[in-house]
Amino acid sequence: MSAEINTDPNRVIIFDTTLRDGEQSPGCSMNLEEKLRVAKTLEGMGVDVIEAGFPIASPGDFEAVNAVAKVVKDSIVCGLARSGKMDIDSAAEALKPAERKRIHTFISTSPLHMEKKLQMTPEEVHQAVIDSVTRARGYVEDVEWSPEDGTRTDHDFLCKCVESAIKAGASTINIPDTVGYTMPNEFAELIRMVRERVPNSDKAVFSVHCHNDLGLAVANSLAAVDAGARQVECTINGIGERAGNASLEEVVMALRTRHDIMPYSSAIVTEDITKVSRLVSGVTGFNVQPNKAIVGANAFAHEAGIHQDGVLKDVRTYEIMTPESVGLTTNKLVLGKHSGRHAFNEKLKELGYEIGDNARQDAFRRFKALADLKKDVFDEDIVALVDDEVLHSDDRIQMVSLEIHCGTVHNPPKASLTLSVDGAEKSCDGFGDGPVDAAFNCIKELFPHNTRLQLYQVSAVTQGTDAQAEVTVRLEEDGKTVNGQGTDTDTMVASVKAYVHALNKLLVKREKTAPAALSA
Q: Does domain 397-509 correspond to CATH entry 3.20.20.70?
């Protein structure tokens, strides 16, 4: 695929690492079904390379990369590996079913990382670069190499390692700003310097992987493109470790909107951006901030009088791109209680859902029940309904029923809860300082566990007093954090769903034992 892409010197390869680096966000974990949905949607929107995971991290990661490799046909499927033999062998095994596969191997090259983290000499690291790329190249034709903490690496040593990696068979060289340390001008000069000084640099595509610790990940990525990089590593909604990664939607729309001064293009179907953003937000439990560029709820909102006046006269006065260009429609109100099955199925397709007949029938039944409670059903309601009710149907723990007694005449508040745990129903009555506390105490009694509640957050999916409540719960256990989401017109029901969802994700998380140095 790299040969096809590089026939156009201004073509920018979009390398999405939502499933790998994005999932390293604290509390962000996806089950296998969710990862496959995200991968197929990324492929559908034109992502060139999908980094599906870190196969050696755990059996779950290996299974996810292997499963993505089986279903993705058009995009390159990539697996991450450190420089060790076991890492590379595991990645190669996981990627076997892929029609187009890439091994992405890395090792730290900055003085700080080599001394403190790796406890290796520069000579040992350099040899590891050669050995790892050579081993990876023995498995696949498409090998990418990254010097972790590249922006804090000695320039002479960086060039030496890049030259050796290309000589050993790497066709993509990724320069990561692992800790979000660099500045746009500085990073552009670094990319130019490496491309100019390394004798065989013309034999590789240069890539960048920028973190957002100083809020400069997208700016740094674009500066690198202008300096000759032709692959950008990014994530949907900018999720990722610490402050996140470069946001795919921001990079792509910047290239599209400012084509006048940056004559570069990607293969991304930008009209799918909103759909994919909502999908990733739903499955990860990471809500998009309202003022987030491109995909935030306020990205195309105009409240100031002078702005509204200008937009009414000509939208170009305050909109540099159209809502339709990123998949937003001006009319969000599309379904109601009289809408039929055909209209509902078409809406599911429009929102990017490809689910089986049984799940679709279940979703339609739940939609009808929701339409009886809400006068108007919005796209956001459909997304919340499907994600909350259908995608977690196989969870080990599920809520069966909930009854709450609270208010001025009920002191203390009481919750009566029934859960299904591995198919067996269990019930209890619990008390607490408030209705939420009482319900959560019931959950702890029915499914004993030692976790700490880090976050309880309630927001409305849409406007109006009949809006569905969307609740996010974050649980922590032994350093592992997970987010759970629940949606319902009843805030208390949504709260229990969110807690139960988090518990189910924690059960999956318990099986993961990730190795050190996951970053790149």
A: no
Top-level CATH class of 2-284? alpha beta
Residue 108 to residue 115: CA distance in whole angstroms: 10
Rounded to 10 deg, the angle between the 248-257 and 273-284 helix axes is 170
The enclosing H or E element of 416 equals: strand 414-421
DSSP string over 321-365:
S-GGGGT--S--EEE-TT--HHHHHHHHHHTT----HHHHHHHHH
d(CA 288, CA 84): 37
Domain positions in the chain are 2-284, 305-389, 397-509
Residues 289-324 pLDDT 10s: 888 999 887 777 654 454 445 545 556 665 678 888
Q: Closest Cα to residue 103, out of 165, 150, 145?
A: 145
* Cα 518 → chain centroid: 16
Q: pTM for this one?
A: 0.84
- For 483, the 3-state DSSP assignment is strand
pLDDT at 223 over 80: yes
On whether the CB atoms of residues 231 and 13 are closer than 8 A, the answer is: yes
**Separation between Cα atoms, residue 55 and residue 183, nearest integer Å:** 32
208, 218 contact by CB (below 8 A): no
Q: Could you tell me which of 148, 245, 226 has the C-alpha nearest to residue 517? A: 148
